[in-house]
Amino acid sequence: MAEGYEIERVSDAEWLIPATGAMRVPGRVFVDPEMMEDLQGELSGEWSALRQVRNVATLPGIVGVAVALPDVHPGYGFPIGGVGAFDPDEGVVVVGGVGFDINCGVRLMRTPLSREEVEDHRDALADDLYRTVPAGLGSTGKLRLSLTEIDRLLAAGAEYVISHGYGLEADLEFIEDGGRIPGADPGAVSRRAKER
Q1: Cα(188)–Cα(3) distance, rounded to whole angstroms?
Q2: What is the pTM of this model?
Q3: 33-41 and 49-56 helices cross at what angle (nearest 10)?
Q4: Alpha helices in the chain (DSSP H)
């Protein structure tokens, strides 16, 4: 472990980074031991999600704890999967601290499967999700959209995705604003951003 990065294991899926130095609050990281080992391995590199959690904990007005959810990975300041709550009078405004540019986040998906049905297949399911879902800085997926398709996606939101077989109509009910921002203007997004 790099100097100054004391981490205490709270449970099999929760870790505490005590508030030290300029940290105003502690950090809490919700990952399994294997992922924590990977995160600790990043500390010597240029990009470190744990270092970013500590940095978030130093921001003016932060309250409670700086949190890293199970999808945590390095971002451009805030870690992707990071959460911070800030006092409105003493705090800072953090625009898109959790990856607004690519809508990184954690979603809870409901299925008709019971825990018992999934339990014996947990590892295979996790491996398949990890292999199939792009994650991490600079990762890419298999889906390629033309600029016209990107504009349609930006305007229609989750409805576009569902119409192309990536979800169910019922999912819209459980996504904020039905998965669409009314009045979204694809023309406000630069060509360069769309090509990225």
Answers
A1: 45
A2: 0.58
A3: 90
A4: 33-41, 49-56, 115-119, 122-132, 147-156, 158-163, 191-195
